[in-house]
User: Fold this.
Amino acid sequence: MSQRYLVTGGAGFVGSHLVAALLDQGAEVVVFDNLLTGHRAAVLPGATLLTGALEDPDAIEAALARGPFHAVFHFAALSLVGDSMRDPIGYLAANVGNGLRLIDACVRHGVPRFVLSSTAALFGTPDRMPIDEDTSIDPGSPYGDSKWMLERALAWAERIHGLRFACLRYFNAAGADPLGRLGEDHRPETHLVPLAIDAMLGRRAELAVFGTDYDTPDGTCIRDYIHVTDLATAHLAALARLDQGSVTYNLGTSTGHSVLEVIRSVERAGGRPVPHRIAPRRPGDPARLVASPARIMRETGWQPRLASLDDIVATALRWREAHPGGYGG
Ligand code: UFG
Assistant:
């Protein structure tokens, strides 16, 4: 019999790609999403979409009543570092409150496994690279702290109630489904890869490069871009590993790329220049964030398959060219 999964935030960027990976395996998938930032069209036809809010305990009960679920994947969250610096308590209340309500309901319904979308923003501004799971936790933002609080809550839910969990700390998710079914569509868009592509395609005037005076070889910030489909397969690998106990993994490729390198990759993929201008630093941006994914590779055999920046950018470009209005068009 096929396994059944509940995916909160399954209409969002990373969540929708995980739903695709689960469906591709023959699983039954129930998506729970409030569609505020997610898109109905990002939920592939094989999945069941329940539109509801994690603020509503009755809606959570109704979703869990669709079980029994082999696991719950929790993607739904506010996820902008800058917004969280402007509204710290609102961010903590939403992300932590919603996550705790869901974890509590999972415990009451006897859900055996819980997979949390966590973040590299837990680590603040570490001075040691690459960042492994033993790097000290020092969230530089309420957004990062909200994920850390949920990681801690899961540790208690396991200790007291036996809920197995995977905390998956994403570095920079980018790219699009290689089969062209799904892509990245945030409104407003704040992420580098889609913004650089849109500047190249003439859909926005130019890209602002936030700071060229960082302590990096070309002066721009370095990030570890990981293909969203590789993130999805990392969830499947982590899930399988839960049979042996709970896990916490950093998900990246171990390779960092600067903002200027991303611009050059987009130019290679599209054969046109990316109009850009130098702008001041964006508050809160660390100079360098690069993951060590050694633990998940060692413990599960997971490998990123689309690890090169050019592969990531090429898939993202293909989707944005094919969907000028994103999911709305
Ligand atoms: N950047 C620009 N111009 C832009 C947008 C981004 O120069 O218009 C730069 C940023 O300064 C940064 C890099 O491109 O150096 C990547 O920026 P993104 O906004 O794409 O991604 P972040 O690294 O800021 O954030 C991502 C996720 C967050 C998560 C964080 C953890 O979006 O949710 O990684 O490291 F918290």
